[in-house]
Amino acid sequence: MKRPQSRPTNRATSGLPSAPVDKKRAPAKKAAAPSKKFASPAKKIAAPKRALKQQNKRLINIRNSEKKKNFSLSAEAKRFTQGSRNKKLAFGISASAFGALLLLVLATIFTPLLAVQKIEVTGITRLKEKSIVNALISQLGKPLPTVSSSDIAKSLETFPLIESFSIISLPPHTLRIQIAERQPIGVIQVSGTNYLYDPAGVRIGIATGSENLPVIAIQGLPEKSKEFKAAIDVLLALPADLLQRVAEIDAKSKDDVTLRLRGYAGQRIIWGDGSNSVLKSRVLDALIANQKKTDRVTFDVSSPNAPVVRYGNF
């Protein structure tokens, strides 16, 4: 009979002690080498794409955060730079206005928009308007802003009766010349003819006798006479109402000036020199007020602090 084959029993499970293992006779089994798993090509391409997307998201987040910071910073900067922006705006507006004004001025000067086409003359009594307009004929065609007072004065040099003038522009085409004529202050006899003279010694014209001006008794021509200047200083110091009553003034020298009033009495005034003219004028006015026009008297105000009134023939 065949013996039944014995099956190995697991001692660990059966509870029996395990037999010692002979390491020499039963060498340990080698560990199985880990099997290498090779990724597919699709997986190799998908991995960088995911990393790139993540990087892009990170960059977008950083950019958005920077934009928020920049926005907050720009709002803060605008608040602090508002003043400088306003200054720049004001400067730009001013520059534009100045440029427009400059263009307007240039257009006015270099175009016939304001060219002189008519000349008016006012303030004259002895001079003739036609003569003055003819002297200013060179001003026709000039733009009003370019009319020069020096050119006008040069054109009017031939009119000694003109003491001063002013220029008035009346757009668009009228130029007005306002003239102040010389006014006579006395009559001087030169070579047997009575002429009218102004305070500057300029001859104005021949006296007609109706001017009611004093006769100035001097030697020589007035423009070269010191006596004439002394007489004029006295006449200019007199009150206007008293000046009209002076018939004659005699300036023998600058320290010896006498006057004679109009009227039958022919009252005489001893003025003396040209000092204290204002005080002398006031004292003389008070003395004359206390006398009748028919009284033949001499008023001596050469020393105004001690005036003298002498009666009788003189």
What does this protein look like?
It is built from 7 helices and 12 strands. The strands form 3 sheets. A 6-stranded mixed beta sheet has the order 7-8-9-10-11-12, covered by helices on one side. A 3-stranded mixed beta sheet has the order 1-3-2, covered by helices on one side. It has a 3-stranded antiparallel beta sheet with strand order 4-5-6, with no helix packed on it. The longest helix has about 70 residues, at about 40-110. The chain folds into 3 domains: about 85-115; about 115-180, Ubiquitin-like (UB roll); about 185-310, Rossmann fold (3-Layer(aba) Sandwich). Mean pLDDT is about 80; it is low at about 1-5, about 10-25 and about 30-40. The protein has about 325 residues and is an alpha/beta fold.
